[in-house]
Amino acid sequence: MSACTGRCHDCPYDFCGTEAPKRRPSKAAERAWRQDALFELEDLGDLYGIDPSSVSL
């Protein structure tokens, strides 16, 4: 993969965008996503019989 930043006007890659970088999500949104991920890990651990203390996020 290239070190393309997507900021060149004639970028050949489809995954690049020439628009400005997106704003970073708020701290509250990041906390909510992290909490959701922890709940998902707990559910998956229960499903597959994995001890939650052995898994970290």
Walk me through this protein's architecture.
The protein has one helix at residues 27-48. The chain is mainly α and 57 residues long. The relative contact order is 0.10. The mean pLDDT is 78.
List the helices and strands and how they pair.
Elements: H1 27-48
DSSP helix fraction = 25-40%
Structural class: mainly alpha
Mean pLDDT: 78
Poorly predicted ranges:
none
Number of helices: 1
Largest sheet: none
What is the total tally of β strands? 0
Order of helices and strands: H
The gyration radius over C-alpha positions equals 18 Å
| Terminal Cα span | 27 Å
Shape: elongated
Nutshell version of this structure?
The chain is mostly helical and 57 residues long.
Features:
about 55 residues; mainly alpha; about 40% helix
